[in-house]
Design goal:
Protein name: Integral membrane bound transporter domain-containing protein
Structural class: mainly alpha
Largest sheet: none
Distance between the termini: 49 Å
Helix content: over 70%
Number of strands: 0
Strand content: under 5%
CATH architecture of the largest domain: Up-down Bundle
Subcellular location: Membrane
InterPro entries: Memb_transporter_dom (IPR049453)
CATH topology of the largest domain: Four Helix Bundle (Hemerythrin (Met), subunit A)
Radius of gyration: 30 Å
CATH class of the largest domain: Mainly Alpha
Order of helices and strands: HHHHHHHHHHHHHHH
Number of helices: 15
GO cellular component, one term: membrane
Main location: membrane
Length: 356
Amino acid sequence: MNARNRWTSPFAWLGRVFRVPGEERRSVLQTAKAAAAAVIAWIVATSVLQLPQPFLAPYAAVFLVQATVYRSVRGWAQQVGAVTGGVLLAAGAGQLIPSVTVALGLVVFVGLLIGSWRGFGDSGVWVGITGMLLISYGNATEPVLLADRLLETALGAAIGVVLNAVVLPPLHGERLKEATSRLASAIGDVLEETAALVRGSEPPEAADLLHERLRDVRSLVAEAEEAIGWTREGRYLNLRRRRETGEGQLVNLISLWPPLAQLIDAVSEAAQSDQPFRHPGEYARGVVGELLEALAEVARSGDPDKLDHSRGLVEEIDHLLVTPTDEVTTSIGLGAMALPARRLVQRLDHPDSSEA
């Protein structure tokens, strides 16, 4: 079965390219744009400008078709700056150092140091590499060839940037949808498992498993934050710039993480404690469990009826906390659970406040 999956997975991936406007389709589109940019840069450099050995033109064009238009524009400045630095470094070494071996070592050493400046980003390594190529090819003492290298790089990079910005510039809205779906489902599952632990239908050892699931949720929160970052960056300088629907919903789900972690800590401590006064009585546990189950549905679907029901259950918990009954007055555990549970309801009830 595993062997069959290995053979069929490429076809499944290709099928998603045509069926789903998601990551697979964007990858194919960006790859096609990179190939087209390389061909156009080569044609312009060889047939129009008639530059000798214009290998830097298609290279720069390919690497400037980035995941966002903003990264393409920023990469253009970094790439041109790095290559310019390498060319100038090679020119200086070629004029002042007669030994090619010594010049090569010095250019690589100094170029890599200069390229480590964070302003060059990932392109910084090309300060030293460009200088090394020019020294080793024997072009460092020929000003015309040095100027050609600069022109090739600027040309190829510009073609890559323009093509990426004009031809279906990339957006990342589907990341929001996927991250929202995964995070909402995970939060709902954790809330239901927490409700079962509160009701006492799970053994106390289940608290350890619940903490493991909580770490999974934290990982999905990090993924969601990354998805929002990609989506917002994708709108910078983008001709198709638009505000993706669902961003506010995902921000709201992310905001549930702190009270959710506090709630699970409180439930786990109460479930594992040997001191009876820390664990709420049976009726109170039933109310908290019902609240968490309702919140699980709200997190998954935004059900307004379940949200109204959650508000009523929070009010009932508040009433239990101030009611002088033998079951509740000595319960520290109920108060510890009530605060994060109330915060979960508030954040689901007022999503705009969490986004701000």
